[in-house]
Structures are given as C-alpha cells and as structure tokens.
Amino acid sequence: MMPEDKKGTILYVEDNPDNRNLIRRVLNAEGYTLVEAVNAKQAIEKLEEGGINAVLMDINMPDMDGYTLTAKIKAIEKFSKIPIIAVTANVMRGDRERSLEAGCDGYIQKPIDIDTLAQQIERFITRSHNV
Predict the structure, then answer these.
(1) How many Å apart are CA 63 and CA 29, to the nearest integer?
(2) Conformational region of residue 16, where left means phi above 0, alpha means psi within -120 to 50, and beta covers everything else
(3) Per the confidence metrics, is the pTM higher than 0.85?
(4) Residue 51, CB half-sphere, CA atoms under 13 Å: how many?
(5) Cβ atoms within 10 Å of 114's Cβ, excluding its own
(6) What is the pLDDT of residues 61-98, one digit of tens each?
(7) Contact of 13 with 55, CB cutoff 8 Å
(8) What's the burial of 28, exposed, middle or buried (CB within 10 Å: 0-12/13-18/19+)?
(9) How far apart are CA 101 and CA 67, in angstroms?
(10) In CATH, which superfamily holds the domain spanning 1-90+109-114?
(11) What's the angle, vertex CA 103, arms to CA 98 and CA 108, rounded to 5?
(12) DSSP string covering 66-89, please?
C-alpha cells in the first residue's frame, strides 16, 4: 500500500549516473519514488519486483537500446499496461515515431525540461489508469 502523499513509483532506465541523480532529485521533490536500473537486465528485475507505475526509458544504452527493451517489456503481458516514456537526445525526424512504434507511450527530449517533467509523467500515469 502506497502512502497517500506518494504519487507513484517510476522506474528510470538510464546508464548515466548524472542523469539519474538529476531525475531522482526532481521526481523525489515532486512526491514520486524513483527506482533505478542501469541496463536491460536490471530493468526487467525491477519490474518483476512490482509496484512500478511508469518507466522512463533512456534510448541510448550500451547493452540493449531502449527501443528493443521497450518492445521486450511490452511483450510481457503483466507489464504491457505500464506506460513507457522514451527519454532521448535523438530528436531527428522519425525518432519520435520510432519510439512509439517500439511501444513507448510517450517521448521526452533531452536535455530534459525539469520544470515540466513531473507533469508529463503524471499525464501518462493518469492516462494508463483510465484504460
């Protein structure tokens, strides 16, 4: 049971510690709990532990890119309803479409706008609860 003041638990899949620290500070300040994974294997393990409301997915990771990992997570029935938001510096034409095709529910550009990050995440979590 989550305490009332907590908005939800976000899994952040990101290999860069500086990015993880920044996002952790921002989301903790907004009332979210942040669970971190540095690679695909860890991400699946954290999802298996349960309680994840949304996933922030870095696209450029060393072992398995975020597109592949998203498709893998979405293929697992019990995780298929968890919103996955791509986080990427790839802002080339077609990148947004590619992340949506892989199964991402949304897309946040790097550098991340920390002023709007919490609202963006909240929108995805709210939308997934209304499905």
Answers:
(1) 30
(2) beta
(3) yes
(4) 13
(5) 14
(6) 888 999 999 999 999 999 999 999 998 876 677 777 88
(7) yes
(8) exposed
(9) 9
(10) Response regulator (3.40.50.2300)
(11) 65
(12) HHHHHHHHHTSGGGTTS-EEEEES
